[in-house]
Amino acid sequence: MESVGRAFRAAGLLVLDLLGAVAVPGILEVTVWPVPVHSVAAVVIKEWSLSIAFAAFMGFMMYRRWRSGTSKWVWILPALWFAFRAIPYAARSSANSVLSVDSGFWAHFSGAACGAADIFNCRDFYAFSVPLIRALSYSAAAMIASRVLEHGSRANANPNATAQGHEEPKHK
Questions:
Q1: Which of 80, 95, 156, 167 has its CA 20 to 30 A from that of 27?
Q2: Sign of CA dihedral 120, 121, 125, 129
Q3: CA 172, CA 168: separation in Å to the nearest integer?
Q4: CB 39 within 8 Å of CB 94
Q5: String of b and e for 40-61 (b: at least 16 CB within 10 Å)?
């Protein structure tokens, strides 16, 4: 019965981590930092920078609060979602001719090819790349938090420890 409870807890934390990694940074971008931009390139740069920053903040704070291992691995589901679109795109674009106007895989999915003329490139960037960017940033921050908090808890457990991990001699 305890294993069923752990499975439900892990599933709930995974959903919470997915929301924290993908949805909350988008909400924060719009509400906390409504920076006006005047070009498509500025929109893409804003998306990259704020997605990384807000998702990293969320990842660190969520791991600090819940200490869940799922927050370190939440990037896997968005990576599968990204692969769901990226693999067919790569297969299709490799079959194009030399005279093709295709912008290339990285330009397409990084948002560099996003423009007013081709909304298709923007759709793939926002629907497939942005969730992956946020989840990778979230998971990296959770990994850093696990290292920092683990190191901090070890140092608190042994207050006589120095930075090198050696105990200071006790003076009488």
A1: 80
A2: positive
A3: 13
A4: no
A5: eeebbeebbebbbbbbbbbbbe
